[in-house]
Amino acid sequence: MADSKLDSLLDRFAKQDRLALARLITRVENRSAEVSTVMERIYARTGHAYIIGVTGAPGAGKSTLVNQLVSRYRAQNKLVAVLAIDPSSPFSGGAVLGDRVRMTDHYRDPGVYIRSLSSRGHHGGLSRAAREIVKLLDAFGYDIVIIETVGVGQTELSVMDLADSTVVVTVPEGGDGVQVMKAGLNEIADLFVVNKADRDGADRVKAELELSVHLRPPVGWRPLVLMTQASNDIGVDALVVAIVRHADFQKEHHDPARDRERRTREFLEVLTSELEERTERALKNGAGGADQVLGEVREGRLNPYSAARRIIEDHAAISRLLDEGGPKSVRQ
Amino acid sequence: MADSKLDSLLDRFAKQDRLALARLITRVENRSAEVSTVMERIYARTGHAYIIGVTGAPGAGKSTLVNQLVSRYRAQNKLVAVLAIDPSSPFSGGAVLGDRVRMTDHYRDPGVYIRSLSSRGHHGGLSRAAREIVKLLDAFGYDIVIIETVGVGQTELSVMDLADSTVVVTVPEGGDGVQVMKAGLNEIADLFVVNKADRDGADRVKAELELSVHLRPPVGWRPLVLMTQASNDIGVDALVVAIVRHADFQKEHHDPARDRERRTREFLEVLTSELEERTERALKNGAGGADQVLGEVREGRLNPYSAARRIIEDHAAISRLLDEGGPKSVRQ
Question: Which of A184, B70, B143, B319 could form a disulfide bond with A315, CB atoms 3.0-4.6 angstroms apart?
Answer without folding.
Answer: B319
